[in-house]
Design a protein that fits this description.
alpha/beta; five-stranded mixed sheet; two-stranded antiparallel sheet
Length: 224
């Protein structure tokens, strides 16, 4: 922050007090000027308008502006699900949005809030993905995290992956290999202009059949 010189402090103090009252009182006019003066009442420090922090540390070392149930216009029981909400949120500088994924009736994934217990409307994931792709880096080029709440069946999960890949293209961060557990995350500086998907993936039945069979065999033979 900038430090004021003694001369600047003196000039500011002189403006605040009525010279006609011997420098001891504030007149009504001076008080109004003081209350309406942007320089004296600015809440936001101008130097904070640009990012000056060190952005080379792991992503988990930073506070991130995040949104919950980002798709909803209104409440969580009867709200409208909309792709336009992502546009509005991203334009404010938000860097983490949420998508709740549910199987759509036409075989394509939808975005909505717990359809078993609410009356929220649905919106196509394809519409949401396009909105995010168009607005992701308008307000900031820092990485965008998409938090996925995945309720999809495996076939529609595959469709969701195809939609994300098609809509985000080269913006989608795709690690060449899975990093080992405990390895620090990449830094915001190294991920500028990238979209990160965060969530749990469901495996096809064939992918989990072998471990289950192995456990059953161990139990029946008395081992383990």
């Amino acid at each position: 922050n900038r430090t004021l010189s003694s001369g600047e402090l003196t000039r500011r103090a002189a403006r605040l007090f009525d010279e006609r009252a011997g420098g001891l009182l504030l007149s009504a006019a001076t008080l109004c000027d003081l209350l309406l003066d942007p320089a004296e009442n600015e809440v936001f420090a101008p130097e904070e308008a640009s990012v000056w922090h060190d952005l080379t540390r792991p992503l988990s070392h930073y506070y991130i502006s995040a949104s919950h149930n980002s798709y909803l216009e209104g409440d969580q029981l009867t709200g409208v699900s909309s792709g336009d909400m992502y546009r509005r949120i991203l334009r404010t500088g938000c860097r983490c949005v949420e998508i709740d994924l549910w199987d759509g009736p036409d075989g394509m994934p939808d975005v909505t809030h717990e359809p078993r217990y609410t009356r929220c409307t649905r919106v196509s994931l394809a519409i949401v993905a396009i909105a995010i792709a168009e607005e992701a880096f308008v307000a900031s080029d820092l990485p965008l995290i998409i938090s996925l709440e995945n309720h999809l069946s495996v076939p529609q999960q595959n469709e969701a992956a195809r939609i994300f890949a098609s809509a985000f293209g080269d913006k989608l961060a795709r690690p060449a290999t899975r990093p080992p557990d405990g390895m620090p995350l990449d830094s915001p500086a190294s991920l500028r202009g990238k979209i990160l998907l965060k969530g749990k993936m469901k495996l096809a039945a064939s992918a989990v059949a072998a471990p289950v069979a192995s456990t059953t065999e161990q139990a029946s033979s008395g081992r383990g």
